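Subject: Sanity check before I submit

Could someone independently write out the structure tokens for this chain? I want to compare against mine line by line before I put it in a report. The sequence has 105 residues.
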Amino acid sequence: MDVSRVFEGVAESGVFIALGTSGYLEELREHGDCYHQLMMAKALKKPAILMLDKRLLPSEREEIRQGLNGLKVIGTVLFDREKLEDRALNELREILENWKKRADV
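---
Independent answer below. Compare away.
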């Protein structure tokens, strides 16, 4: 993975999407790439959408939510990491469309 392109993507994006899975949580705890992307999104004051794996324990979900403190979370979508359902994708699409309307992006 070209890390510089990932950070460039965070800088250029209108919205930061955090894919809250067990792997994401581990990276946050270990200050891996996801942690640094999150810190960049915070520094740039990006609005965020949190996609949370519904298989996570409630305490793990809360830990991820706490990691996003400082970002304006414009929506949260629960999904199953084993299969991304149409419902979850539609929720994500709706959040983005509503954000675009409010932000006049």
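---
OP: Matches mine. For the report I'm noting this point. The helical segments are 3-12, 22-29, 33-43, 58-67, 86-103.
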